[in-house]
Write a structure and sequence with these properties.
31% of the residues lie in helices and 13% in strands. Helix 3 packs across helix 4. The longest helix has 17 residues.
Length: 365
């Protein structure tokens, strides 16, 4: 039984040695202050992407008057402030180690600061009881983060060195009392309030645009409520680890042993490609078979000869070769899909591969 179950995404191990996916390798490792950002979503750790998406998705409920806060704006700030937590580990709960602590704001000029800022947190978050330092991936002053801590975690356990907590605090800060961030003037004022520099605003917005250009997380065009539910379910799992044989209708699970590359899914809680599909379609009452090859037979089949343009948001998109179907993703429009790519990676958005494209299937009308 385990041997059969693990075959859902087996072939992806073979093809990834040949295919260069646009979201797998970091292109830009320059200083976050670079004036010419080039990169892909992969220069953001998957767990940070998940934190940004969750924070942006929470704003309609937490600040109903706020409009247009995209996760890419949070990513732009995270890039400029901490280079996406580069050099630090982020565990599944979002905890960042070692903590991200900026230069001590003692007026020495380090980090561009020439005005001393006396301690406000007793050294709790920045380790210094005389002066403050900016903390976390979004580089909040301890006093500023404290102002949002109760909204972020009402139980009082919020930490600026937790990716979810800091991202949510940044989203709340940018939204204010209900800014319309689709309005350029209000958007620029929001980012300027974060750091009073027009050059800073320009840099953050350049990175936002760079990330947005890689493909929106939103489905393209009008979609049914069922399709939107499926896409949102997949999007909510961005950053969840790939696990060989992992995932079921309830969510991430431990997988099985073992991939050709050596991953033991029994040690990783997450999804493989077909397990992710089982989970997201269960959200709308569609029970899929476990293997990608079997999923290709569900609903209306869309032949590869029709091209990617024949796909609609909410379709499953397949890849295969002479041995059969080996990979599946969820099409969201604009040539983009959400998928669990391979061992060592995580659920993410990617362009639909042209290599071994095997058409799609439409479980939902």
């Amino acid at each position: 039984m385990k041997h059969i179950r693990r075959m859902g995404c087996l072939g992806v191990l073979l093809v990834l040695a040949i295919v260069s996916l646009p979201v797998i390798s970091m292109i830009d490792s320059a200083d976050p202050g670079s004036t010419a950002p080039v990169g892909t979503v992969s220069d953001i750790p998957g767990r940070m992407v998940q934190a940004y998406v969750r924070a942006a998705s929470a704003m309609p409920q937490m600040v109903p008057g706020c409009k247009g806060l995209a996760w890419q704006l949070l990513a732009g700030i995270g890039k400029v402030e901490s280079n996406q937590a580069a050099g630090h580990q982020i565990d599944p709960a979002g905890l960042i180690t070692p903590p991200i602590i900026g230069p001590l704001l003692n007026g020495s000029g380090a980090g561009g600061n020439t005005s001393a800022i006396r301690d406000t947190d007793g050294g709790k978050w920045d380790g210094n009881s005389e002066y403050d330092a900016a903390v976390g991936p979004m580089q909040f002053l301890p006093s500023t983060f404290a102002g949002y801590s109760a909204r972020v975690r009402p139980d009082g356990t919020g930490s600026p060195n937790n990716a979810d907590d800091e991202s949510l605090a940044a989203a709340l800060y940018l939204c204010g009392n209900g800014r319309d961030l689709t309005d350029t003037a209000q958007l620029r004022r929001a980012v300027y309030s974060y750091n009073a520099s027009n050059a800073y605003v320009d840099e953050v917005l350049r990175w936002r645009d760079q990330y947005a250009a890689l493909g929106s997380q939103e489905p393209i065009g009008d979609v049914s409520e069922q399709v939107r539910t499926v896409i949102e379910a997949a999007r909510s799992q961005i950053g969840v680890p790939y696990s060989w044989g992992g995932g079921d209708a309830s969510g991430p699970t431990y997988g099985v042993c073992c991939t050709q590359g050596g991953q033991d899914g029994r040690l990783v809680k997450g999804f493989d490609c077909s397990g992710l599909m089982v989970f997201v379609f269960a959200k709308v009452g569609v029970s899929l078979p476990r293997l990608a090859a079997d999923q290709a037979g569900v609903g209306q089949r869309i032949p590869a000869s029709a091209g990617v343009s024949a796909l609609k948001p909410g379709d499953m998109v397949f890849f295969g070769n002479s041995t059969g179907i080996y990979h599946v993703g969820l099409y969201i429009g604009g040539g983009q899909m959400l998928n669990a790519p391979k061992p060592g990676d995580s659920v993410k958005q990617a362009a639909v591969w042209s290599y071994d494209y095997a058409g799609g299937a439409r479980p939902l009308k």
